Amino acid sequence: MAKRKKPKKKKPHPSSLLPQEQQTQLTALLENFKNLTHANVNEQIASPELAQVFIESLPTKDAEVIPVLLAVRGAFPQKNVQKAIKKTFFKLKQKGITHPDLEPEKGPPVLTRSPEVSDPSAFLGPIDGSGSRGVLLLLPLIPTGVDVGMGAVSDELGFIQFFVGRYSKKQLKEIKKIFFSSFDNAIETSISHAATLLERAYRKSEEGLNESSRGYLQMRPWILENVSLLEQSAIYDLMPIDRISEGGLTSSQIEKLLAHELMKTWIIDLDKMKPLVENIQKVTESRILVSDAQKTEQIAEAKRKATREIFPEEKRLFMKGRLEEMAYFFSKLEEEEMARLSLTAAQSLDEKESPFLVNAFLEAIVERTLAFHVQGAEKAPGSEGRAGEASSKIIIP
Fold it and tell me: Is 106 left (phi over 0), alpha (psi -120 to 50) or beta?
């Protein structure tokens, strides 16, 4: 008698392999998948395994699945997740639903496997007053060629622009020339340092990467696989905190720091200064405050109030990070005094402010910006009349 074939065991659904907690999360995600965005994907999906099962379980008849695929693709570069995205997109295409960003790229991949990358290097430009800087990442390939990632990132906005391409070593000279002509005084830094800044920019790009910066997604898998990101600012590897003097900076030290060529762009946006300028104008024209002493005190209080409003806790953290990065920058340029001043200013931002005192460095930034904009108004065409008269009344004690 012929042997009966044993029925094949059905493979368990991938969701059954997830921990119970993640199965519950999966159910909630599928019920509300349209709410998943670039901004919240990392909060909603805790692991690549959950991401894979989630993608595999999505309906393939709804065009609103496309933004979800894009969000998960950017957040999870792991092969199993990327493969699941490709399969789901293929099913959507069969039903006439497509999207250019999910189409397979033509030509060879930009990056190769990590063993083929030899002696990577990175360069950074100085930080400007808005928290933006240039980044250049070079990954020499074996046996030939170099993968280049170059652009500008912001600590508040994320990617401003970033492109990735493969070039010959001869072409690399031209790439470097472009970067160093765009960002004066650029310094060489560690791959970990540059990669940390790029990853922070990636997480800040809440609306997703735009056309000019989506190239980072090609470089990101290599970074995540081969680079250890920094847990604190790079300056602390060069200059431990115990080498920093306590008590903050004196007025003359702050003035010296802000007078440096690389700190010239450290001013506040005019729109943020308008309320202060208007308050000062009201005080100077007030008929209630008769004495100059009263007016001077009112103006000083207006400046303290404006400083607190312009630099709430989140903005203070950004400013601290910028000062730490500039301390590293100065240190690499062998300007040790400037590095210490910058790091001391950064540390002073950890101190809590009182109702009557504000941080001396932030106060100096406000004063400097106020003077800058007043000077600009006086020099503007046609400012000799009304604008000149208004600005001349502003008292800067």
Answer: beta
